[in-house]
Specification:
Blueprint lengths: L1 H4 L4 E9 L3 H11 L3 E3 L13 H23 L16 H54 L2 H8 L11 H6 L4 E9 L3 H12 L3 E7 L4 E2 L6 E2 L1 E9 L1 H13 L3 E3 L5 H57 L3 E2 L5 E9 L3 H15 L6 E5 L16 H10 L10 H16 L2 H16 L4 H4 L4 H8 L1 H18 L16 H8 L3 H6 L31 H34 L4 H31 L11 H10 L12 H32 L10 E5 L5 E5 L26 H25 L2 H25 L4 H42 L30
Antiparallel strand pairs: 1-10, 1-11, 2-10, 3-7, 3-8, 4-7, 5-6, 9-10, 12-13
Helix pairs in contact: 2-9, 2-10, 3-4, 3-9, 4-9, 7-8, 11-12, 12-16, 12-24, 12-25, 13-16, 19-20, 19-23, 19-24, 20-22, 20-23, 22-23, 24-25
Length: about 850
C-alpha cells in the first residue's frame, strides 16, 4: 500500500561494466527490468556510435524475418507463439543465426520465383487455350456468312460504298494477316475505335467475351477478358495493329493458319498444362516444407533479435573510461532493488567468464528522479486514469488508491440502475474469468483492448451500480417491491374521501406524507417502490439527489484538501500546514461545510408534517452572505450569530492564504536561513556515514532550508523575489476560492446525470417494451420476441455504452479537476525501465516486426 500511496524511492547509480561482460550484464538487466538507463552520449550522432554495425546486422536479420513472416502468412501457416521466452543470443552465436537466415532467404526466394514463373506460364497457356477455342467459332461463323455482311456486322458505322470485298482483296493478291489475343473487357470499345481510326478500315475485328474470370498473368488478379481476332491486309497495317495491341496491354498469342495446325497446338497446350500442374504442385509442396521448417524457429529468432538489438542500443548509451576497457552507465534504480541489481551484475559477469566483476555505485544527483508506482492487474487501470492527467511528481501522494473506491462510486451515483449494473458487472466478470485467453489479449482492435485493460474497473463500476440501483430502487426504470411498501393507500383514500370514480378519472394524484396514518415507517433499504407510481416522483427525486450531490461533493473536496497535508509533512514544509492547508480547509468548511450541515439538520429535525413550514436552505445560505438572518424563520436558535462567525472566519482565511506564505518566506530570506532556489536532491553525510537523499524545495516558493553539507557540489542561491511569490500566491488563492464555488456546483452533475439516465430508461421502456406488453393475445406473444430484441439492443447500445461512457467521462472530470487539484500536481516523469517484457510479443497483421 505504501508503494501505491507514494512512488518508490529512487537513486542514481553508476554501473561499471567490463567490456567482455557488458553484453551479458545488460541482458540480465533486461530480463529483470530493474533500471532506467540515461544516455551519456547525447551529442553523438546515432550513426557514429560504437555498436552501430551490430545494430545494422540486427536490422538486416529483422528484414529477413519480416520477409519470412510475410511468406508464412501468405501460405496460411500458423506461428507457434507460445510462452517460450528465449534469452538474448551470445555474440558468437549471431553469425550462425545470420547464416541460417540468409540461407533460408535464398532458398525461399528461388522457390518462390520458380513458383511465380510456373504460375505465370500456366496462366498464359490457359489464356491461349481459351483464345483458340473462341477464335475457332469466329472462323466457322465467317465461312457461313457473306464477306460483305461480315464486315457490316463488325463495323456498323461504315458506309457500304467504302467497304472492300474480302474475296476481291484476295484475288488482287493482297497478303492477309491475323493477330489474336486477349484484352480486358473495359478496354475493348476504345480498342475497336482506335483500330478503325488508325487502320482506315483495312482491318476486320471479331471478339467475344470469355464466360469465366481468368487470372491475369501480370498481376495474378481475376479479371473479365475478351478474346479478339484481327484480320488485316499489308505489312504496314500489321505493324500498326501490333503497336496498338502493345499500347492497350493486350496478351497476343500466335494464330494457327489452318485447322490442322490449330488442333496440333491445342493438343500440345493440353499436355503442357498437365505437366505444369504436376510441377507446380510439387513446387508448392516443397515451398510449404521450407516455410514449415522456418515457422518452427521464427518466433524464437524474432524474440532473440529484438533483445539483442535492444542490448546494443543500451550499450550505445554508455561511455568508456580512459582505458577503453570498461563501460560506464548511469541508471535510475529503486533503492529497494539495489540488491537485485548487484546480483544481476554478478550473474552477468559469471556467464561471460570475466575475471573482473562488474559493480554498481550510487552517486549524488540534483536531478528529479522518475516516478515508479508498482501496480498489479487490478490497480493498473485506476493508475492509468491518474497518469492520463499527469504522472505524479516524485514522492507526492498518489490519488490512485483512493480512486479505486471514489471513481466507481461516483460513476454509480450517475449510472445507478440495478439491471444495467448487473449486465455491466457480468460482462466485466466474463473478461476477468477469461483474462488469460490469448485470443482476448492479443487482438488488434483498440476499442476492445481498452475495455479488456479496464476489466477490473468496469467490474467495480458494475458492482457499485448494483448498490446504487438498490438505493434508488431502480431496475430497468421499474421498482422492486422487496420489503413491501410502507405507504397505506387505503388510509390516504379514506382521509381524502376519494371515491372510485374520482380515482379512475384523475391521473395526477400525488403522494402526501402529511396525511395521518398514511405513512407507517421508513422503507428498510432504498426508496419506497410506491414512488415509481406517483406523479410527483420526479420532484421528490430532484430534491433528494440534488442535496446528496452537494454532500458528496463537499466531502470529496474536503478529503482532497486533507490529503495535501501528507505532501507538506513528507516534504518537510510544516509552514504550509498553517499558512496554506488550514485556511483552505476553514474556507471550505465554514461555507460549504456549513451548507452540508444545514441539509443534514433539516433532514433530521423537520418531519413530513413540518415540510410545508420548513425554511428553504438555499434562502438561508444566500442570506448568510447578505447577513440578513433575521428576515426569515431560523432553522435553530443562534443561527444568525453562528453564520456571521463562520463567514468572518472564511473571509479572514483569504488574506492568510494570500499573504501568509510569501511573508513567511520573505522573513526567512532576510534572516539567518538561506532558501535554496533550485529543484533537486542533495546527498547528505550523517554521523553514521549513511547516504540518504533529501528532497529539497520544489521551487523557490517552498522555502525548505538545509544547512547540511552537500556532497554533490556547491549550489548558488538566488535572492528571494517577494513580488513573484505574491503573484503566484494570489493566483493560487483566487483559483482556490472561486474553485470552491464552481467545483461544488460541478458536483451537481451527479444529480443531473442520474435523473437523465433514469428518465431515458423510463422512456425506452414506455416506447418499446410497453408496446409489446399491451397485446394479450397469442400474436402479442410472438410480437414480444422482436420487441424484446429491439429493447435489448437499445439498452446495451444507448443506456450501457453511450450513457456509461458519458457517466465515465463526468466521473473522470470530477477526479481530475475537483478532487486532484487540491493536492496533486502531476508534473513528474514516469519511470520506464529497460525491460524485455515491454517489447511487443506478437506480430502485426502484415507480418512485420
Amino acid at each position: 500500500m505504501n508503494s501505491l500511496l507514494r512512488s518508490e524511492e529512487m537513486c542514481l547509480a553508476q554501473l561499471f561494466l567490463q567490456s567482455g561482460s557488458a553484453y551479458d550484464c545488460i541482458s540480465e538487466l533486461g530480463e529483470l527490468g530493474l533500471v532506467e538507463f540515461r544516455d551519456l552520449n547525447p551529442s553523438v550522432n546515432a550513426f557514429q556510435r560504437k555498436y552501430v554495425s551490430e545494430i545494422k546486422k540486427c536490422e538486416e536479420m529483422e528484414r529477413i524475418l519480416s520477409y519470412l513472416l510475410r511468406e508464412i502468412k501468405k501460405a496460411d501457416i500458423s506461428l507457434p507463439e507460445g510462452d517460450v521466452n528465449p534469452v538474448a543470443p551470445l555474440p558468437k552465436h549471431v553469425i550462425a543465426i545470420m547464416e541460417q537466415l540468409q540461407r533460408l532467404e535464398v532458398e525461399l526466394g528461388e522457390v518462390t520465383r520458380n513458383k511465380e514463373k510456373l504460375q505465370k506460364n500456366l496462366l498464359e497457356l490457359t489464356e491461349y487455350t481459351h483464345m483458340l477455342r473462341i477464335t475457332r467459332n469466329f472462323v466457322q461463323r465467317s465461312a457461313e456468312r457473306e464477306p460483305l455482311q461480315v464486315q457490316y456486322e463488325e463495323f456498323p458505322f461504315l458506309e457500304k460504298e467504302t467497304m472492300m470485298d474480302y474475296n476481291s482483296m484476295q484475288r488482287l493478291g493482297a497478303k492477309l494477316g491475323f493477330v489474336s489475343g486477349l484484352i480486358h473487357r473495359v478496354k475493348i470499345e476504345a480498342f475497336e475505335r482506335m483500330l478503325w481510326r488508325v487502320c482506315k478500315g483495312y482491318t476486320i475485328l471479331s471478339y467475344a467475351e470469355v464466360d469465366e474470370y481468368l487470372d491475369d498473368p501480370d498481376t495474378g488478379e481475376p479479371t473479365k477478358s475478351v478474346v479478339f481476332l484481327i484480320s488485316y491486309w499489308g505489312e504496314q497495317i500489321g505493324q500498326k495493329v501490333k503497336k496498338i495491341c502493345d499500347c492497350y496491354h493486350c496478351h497476343v498469342y500466335p494464330y494457327p493458319s489452318n485447322n490442322e495446325e490449330r488442333n496440333d497446338v491445342v493438343d500440345g497446350l493440353r499436355t503442357r498444362i498437365q505437366d505444369l500442374h504436376t510441377v507446380l504442385h510439387r513446387t508448392e509442396d516443397y515451398l510449404k516444407q521450407v516455410l514449415l521448417r522456418a515457422s518452427e524457429s521464427v518466433y524464437t529468432w524474432v524474440v532473440q533479435i529484438k533483445k539483442m538489438k535492444a542490448i546494443y542500443y543500451i550499450l550505445n548509451q554508455c561511455s568508456f573510461d580512459v582505458t577503453n576497457k570498461c563501460l560506464i552507465a548511469e541508471v535510475w534504480c529503486p533503492v529497494g532493488d539495489l540488491p537485485a541489481l548487484r546480483r544481476a551484475l554478478e550473474e552477468g559477469s559469471r556467464k561471460s567468464g570475466a575475471n573482473v566483476p562488474s559493480f554498481v555505485n550510487r552517486i549524488p544527483s540534483s536531478d528529479i528522479p522518475p516516478s515508479l508506482i508498482r501496480t498489479n492487474k487490478f490497480t493498473s487501470g485506476f493508475q492509468n486514469i491518474v497518469d492520463a492527467y499527469g504522472v505524479c511528481t516524485y514522492r507526492e501522494v498518489n490519488p490512485a488508491p483512493f480512486t479505486i473506491i471514489t471513481f466507481p462510486f461516483l460513476f454509480a451515483v450517475m449510472f445507478g440502475d440495478l439491471g444495467h449494473g448487473i449486465i455491466m458487472a457480468s460482462f466485466a466478470f466474463w473478461m476477468v474469468f477469461y483474462e488469460n485467453d490469448r485470443k482476448l489479449k492479443n487482438t488488434r482492435n483498440e476499442i476492445w483492448n481498452t475495455f479488456f485493460e479496464g476489466r477490473y474497473m468496469i467490474l467495480m463500476m458494475g458492482l457499485f451500480s448494483v448498490y446504487t440501483g438498490f438505493i434508488y430502487n431502480d431496475c430497468f426504470s421499474k421498482s422492486l417491491n422487496i420489503f413491501g411498501s410502507k405507504w397505506n393507500v387505503s388510509a390516504m383514500i379514506k382521509a381524502n374521501n376519494w371515491t372510485k370514480e374520482y380515482i379512475l378519472g384523475n391521473h395526477f394524484l400525488t403522494l402526501d406524507p402529511n396525511v395521518t396514518g398514511v405513512f407507517t415507517g421508513p422503507y428498510p433499504f432504498g426508496i419506497d417502490p410506491i414512488w415509481n407510481l406517483a406523479t410527483n416522483r420526479l420532484t421528490f427525486l430532484n430534491s433528494y439527489k440534488m442535496k446528496m450531490s452537494v454532500i458528496l461533493g463537499v466531502v470529496h473536496m474536503s478529503f482532497g484538501v486533507i490529503l495535501s497535508t501528507f505532501n507538506h509533512i513528507h516534504f518537510r514544509k510544516s509552514h504550509n500546514l498553517y499558512l496554506v492547508f488550514l485556511p483552505e480547509l476553514l474556507f471550505l468548511l465554514c461555507l460549504f461545510g456549513y451548507l452540508v450541515f444545514m441539509i443534514l439538520y433539516k433532514w433530521l429535525v423537520f418531519s413530513a408534517k413540518d415540510s410545508r413550514h420548513a425554511p428553504s436552505i438555499l434562502i438561508h445560505f444566500i442570506n448568510m452572505f447578505m447577513m440578513q438572518g433575521d428576515a426569515i424563520q431560523p432553522l435553530y436558535a443562534g443561527q444568525n450569530g453562528l453564520q456571521i462567525f463562520l463567514l468572518l472566519i472564511a473571509v479572514l482565511s483569504v488574506p492568510v492564504m494570500l499573504l501568509g506564505k510569501p511573508l513567511y518566506l520573505y522573513w526567512l530570506s532576510k534572516g539567518s536561513h538561506r532558501i535554496g532556489t533550485y529543484r533537486g536532491y542533495e546527498r547528505v553525510r550523517h554521523d553514521s556515514d549513511e547516504e540518504v537523499y533529501l528532497l529539497r524545495a520544489h521551487d523557490m516558493e517552498e522555502g525548505s532550508s538545509y544547512s547540511e553539507g552537500s556532497m554533490s557540489g556547491e549550489h548558488q542561491s538566488e535572492e528571494f523575489n517577494v513580488g513573484d511569490e505574491l503573484l503566484h500566491q494570489a493566483i493560487h488563492t483566487i483559483e482556490y476560492c472561486l474553485g470552491c464555488i464552481s467545483n461544488t456546483a460541478s458536483y451537481l452533475r451527479l444529480w443531473a446525470l442520474s435523473l437523465a439516465h433514469a428518465q431515458l430508461s423510463e422512456v425506452l421502456w414506455a416506447m418499446v417494451m410497453r408496446v409489446g406488453l399491451k397485446m394479450d393475445t397469442f400474436l402479442g406473444v410472438l410480437f414480444l420476441v422482436p420487441v424484446f430484441g429491439l429493447f435489448a439492443v437499445l439498452t446495451v447500445s444507448i443506456l450501457l455504452v453511450m450513457e456509461g461512457l458519458s457517466a465515465f467521462l463526468h466521473a473522470l472530470r470530477l477526479h481530475w479537476v475537483e478532487f486532484q487539484n487540491k493536492f496533486y500536481s502531476g508534473n513528474g516523469v514516469k519511470f520506464v525501465p529497460f525491460s524485455f517484457s515491454l517489447m511487443p510479443s506478437s506480430f502485426d497483421n502484415d507480418g512485420v516486426l
